[in-house]
Amino acid sequence: MSISKTVIVTGASSGIGLGLVKAFLDRGYNVVGNARSQSGLDDAAGQSSQAHRFLGVAGDIADPATSSRVIARAIEAFGAVDGLVNNAGFFLPKPFIEYSPQDLEALLDTNLKGLVYASQAAAAHMIRRRQGFIINISAAVALQPNIQVPAALPVLIKGGVNQMTRALALELSPHNIKVNAVAPGIIDTPMHDPAQRAFLDNLAPAGRVGTVAEIAEAVLYLAGADFTTGAVLPVDGGMSTGKW
């Protein structure tokens, strides 16, 4: 049964983003997906029986013009935007001294600038409507760094996302807009080398990696949790509970 709400998902063509698109469509949302490649978005649409409620808008989310265009296309197609999931991003673990200037720029563009520009465009629309939600996809390693996974720059950026989530929740609360984050641990997506599976399974007390469906469940919970804002929800099999 349709609930006639519309959500934007960035990084929508693969991995967690693709799982979120399917989960929101199954829950009855209209979904506007953003990714760099239109062909990837077309493939995503083809994987759902609810493709008539999906709109793909290609473009680099690190470009503020892309965020404005995604919002405009969503309103044109579905009338309004009720939610934004800032999922676009990538994880780049390596020893700190090996990060190059190009690595830093790429991480800032995708993991930070895209989130800021998309959130600004969505929040301006939501403030006028006096309702909405923003959910940021963070990372468990930003809550509890792990010596087995050196990732100082992703921790720097995702840690900032966590704090921004709390600050923006306070700022937007008077406008009836919720802002939360989900902090995934190691999730079973194509980005991971299958040869490293045993190592990855042992990074969390649960003894396994998580599934995309488990991240989607957490995001859907926060999308509907009207009395929850400013939360950073770990979905990581205990990875962020502390040293173990």
UniProtKB/TrEMBL annotation:
Listed SUPFAM superfamilies: NAD(P)-binding Rossmann-fold domains
Organism domain of life: Bacteria
Family: Belongs to the short-chain dehydrogenases/reductases (SDR) family.
PANTHER family the record matches: BLL7886 PROTEIN (PTHR42760:SF135), SHORT-CHAIN DEHYDROGENASES/REDUCTASES FAMILY MEMBER (PTHR42760)
Protein's UniProt name: SDR family NAD(P)-dependent oxidoreductase
